Amino acid sequence: MHADAEPTVLPDMLSLLREATGPSHERLDASFGSLTLSGRADLARFLAAHAIGLAPLFPVFSRFVEERLGLQCPDYPAMLRADLAALGVDTAALPVLDVPAEITGEGGAAGVGYVVCGSRLGLTVIRQRGYWGEAEGFRSAYMTDGRGHEAWKALVPKLRGGTFTPAQTDAARAAALAAFAIFTDAFAASAGIAAGQRTHG
Predict the structure, then answer these.
(1) Between β-strands 8-9 and 163-164, what pairing exists: parallel, antiparallel or unpaired?
(2) Residues 6 or more apart from 52 whose CB is under 8 A from it?
């Protein structure tokens, strides 16, 4: 029997994904960290980049959350559309990124789940620091949604104690790297988007 057909209990899939994506994660954090979320324009770009990046990932992510984690997945794209519309950004004209094969391939959902759940966890820290609009009457549904921590708590034991074939391990790693690359491209594509500016494709 082919080796890939034999399930292998990995010591810690979470650590494997964290190690594999570490450099990508650091670069992406630096990009988003360059924004000043106390300003309206940078907040609009932050939300636009998330909208662009989540669009190709969300179908896989929502299925993973509901089928593998047993949770209801919040409609983050809808939240982002509402937030951006309130800031004057034409979401229909946002750039559309291609969906890489690694994202939709067999075994890739775990990697996508790792990246998106992790990004929601990171928003907890950002939310605590505050962002533009709270004093001006703008409240971001995307920024204030706190269910990301619940998803992360459900994800961790799946990755640490799950049974994966070597092929599934490779697929999850490739999907996670592809998801980080999507968010990197989304951040670049969001350049020039500012509150009150109607975007054009």
Answers:
(1) antiparallel
(2) 94, 95, 96, 97, 185, 186, 189, 190
Angle in degrees, CA 145, 151, 155, rounded to 5: 160
Q: How far lies 84's CA from each of 45, 122, 133, in Å?
A: 9, 20, 12
Determine the average pLDDT of the residues in 168-183: 96
| Average pLDDT along the chain | 90
User: What does pTM read for this prediction?
Assistant: 0.91
Torsion angle of alpha carbons 174, 179, 181, 184, nearest 10°?
-160
Phi-psi region of 192 (alpha: psi -120 to 50; beta: other; left: phi over 0): left
CATH code reported for the domain at 38-189 = 1.20.910.10
How far apart are the C-alpha atoms of 201 and 3, rounded to whole Å?
48
Q: What is the pLDDT of residues 50-108, one digit of tens each?
A: 999 999 999 999 999 999 999 999 999 999 999 999 999 999 999 999 999 999 988 89
Amino acid at 124: T
State both tokens at 148.
Answer: 């990301």
Judged by DSSP in three states, 185 sits in: helix
- What's residue 33's pLDDT? 93
Strand partners, 9: 163
Domain locations along the chain = 38-189
